[in-house]
């Protein structure tokens, strides 16, 4: 993302040096491997950007940024084991390249390494970062468990779904930004507003991910369009369609989400039709808009210059337009 470029080049160097330990190779090689696969590095760049915008040299936030990226990558390794996923960032997942036990242990080591980066801060900042980080990590765990529970439930409410994506994904974006504000020693009220900005934008982003999975352009989406339909994942579109559609539409959807045809093209096309005819597609767009508007309204209230607010707004817009 253009706006994050300045931070990404500093991050690139720091990440390459972050894991200096070599032995045992079986423990540290997978960590170096997943970090070298890249990814968009949105979260650590946000930590640096937020620190910068609250008026402190963004390099002072590098340790917090490294912690958040290590944590994110650790959660991806464990998530891929749970999902039995073969590919991550276009390459073999850690448990495929090595094995499941190696992936578990390397992931665990990454979580500890993430906390160690906080030791570079003086006690007051250290405590604030660690407290936020622990709370956030626990919420991510809770979000993951809810997501797993939802797979076998057929009565998930919209509120429960939003709560799940908030915890599984959005709180980490909020925390990434708040950490930058903590290192910059911003006012408590502003720390909380920037946290809520990141969190609401994170919810909007995840809902948009659900939407693009069905209606996205295959050239620009970056993932297989229809992937959630193929794997029978009950996203917001499914929940909205069950809630808003006719009895016949709901029954057909329930049936389609219980089968796994060899050629999924017809299934994808029918589900897409029902999402449109039931009003679920429109209702999802309204929901995305609601959380984006909320995020931008919070930004307006923060005590930083108009120029910096515009930069945050541009970041939010480019995240939602997927120019990442
Ligand atoms: C917190 C102790 C503890 C355990 C973790 C495995 C797990 C429990 C949680 C899973 C969390 C998870 C993988 C959430 C998905 C978040 C998400 C949107 C990932 C994709 O992020 P991008 O697009 O990826 O930023 P890149 O590859 O660009 O970094």
Explain the overall architecture:
There is one protein chain. The protein has 324 residues and is mainly α. It contains 16 helices and two strands. The chain has helices at 5-18, 25-36, 42-53, 62-83, 94-97, 100-117, 123-150, 158-183, 188-215, 218-221, 227-230, 236-244, 247-256, 265-277, 280-300, 306-320, and strands spanning 87-88, 91-92. Strands 1-2 form a two-stranded antiparallel ribbon. Helix 3 runs antiparallel to helix 4, helix 4 (62-83) packs antiparallel against helix 6 and helix 12 (236-244) crosses helix 15 (280-300). The longest helix is centred in the middle third of the chain and has 28 residues, at 123-150. It is globular. The mean pLDDT is 94. Geranylgeranyl diphosphate binds next to helix 4, helix 7 and helix 8. Pfam families: polyprenyl_synt. Keywords: Magnesium, Metal-binding, Transferase. One of its GO terms (molecular function) is transferase activity.
In short:
The protein has helices at residues 5-18, 25-36, 42-53, 62-83, 94-97, 100-117, 123-150, 158-183, 188-215, 218-221, 227-230, 236-244, 247-256, 265-277, 280-300, 306-320; strands at 87-88, 91-92. The chain is an all-alpha fold. This is Polyprenyl synthetase family protein.
């Amino acid at each position: 993302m253009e706006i994050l470029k300045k931070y990404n080049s500093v991050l690139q160097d720091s990440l390459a040096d972050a894991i200096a330990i070599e032995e045992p190779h079986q423990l540290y090689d997978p960590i170096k491997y997943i970090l070298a696969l890249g990814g968009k590095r949105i979260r650590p760049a946000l930590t640096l950007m937020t620190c910068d915008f609250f008026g402190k040299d963004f390099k002072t936030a590098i340790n917090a940024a490294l912690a958040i990226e290590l944590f994110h990558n650790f959660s991806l390794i464990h998530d891929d084991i749970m999902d039995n996923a073969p590919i991550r960032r276009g390459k073999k997942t850690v448990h495929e390249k090595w094995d499941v036990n190696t992936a578990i242990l390397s992931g665990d080591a990454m979580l500890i390494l993430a906390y160690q980066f906080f030791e570079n801060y003086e006690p007051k900042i250290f405590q604030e970062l660690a407290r936020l980080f622990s709370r956030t990590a626990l919420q991510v765990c809770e979000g993951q468990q809810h997501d797993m529970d939802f797979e076998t439930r057929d009565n998930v409410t919209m509120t429960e779904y939003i709560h799940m994506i908030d915890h599984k994904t959005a709180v980490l974006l909020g925390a990434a930004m708040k950490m930058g504000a903590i290192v910059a020693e911003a006012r408590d009220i502003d720390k909380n507003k920037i946290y809520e900005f990141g969190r609401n934008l994170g919810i909007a982003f995840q809902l948009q991910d659900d939407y693009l999975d069905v209606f996205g352009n295959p050239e620009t989406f970056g993932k297989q369009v229809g992937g959630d339909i193929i794997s029978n994942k009950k996203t917001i579109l499914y929940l909205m369609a069950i809630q808003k559609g006719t009895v016949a539409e709901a029954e057909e959807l329930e049936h389609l989400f219980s089968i796994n045809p060899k050629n999924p093209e017809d299934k994808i096309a029918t589900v897409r039709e029902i999402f449109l005819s039931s009003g679920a597609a429109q209702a999802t767009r309204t929901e995305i808009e609601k959380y984006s508007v909320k995020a931008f309204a919070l930004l307006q209230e923060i005590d930083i210059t108009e120029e910096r607010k515009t930069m945050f707004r541009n970041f939010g817009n480019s995240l939602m337009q997927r120019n990442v």
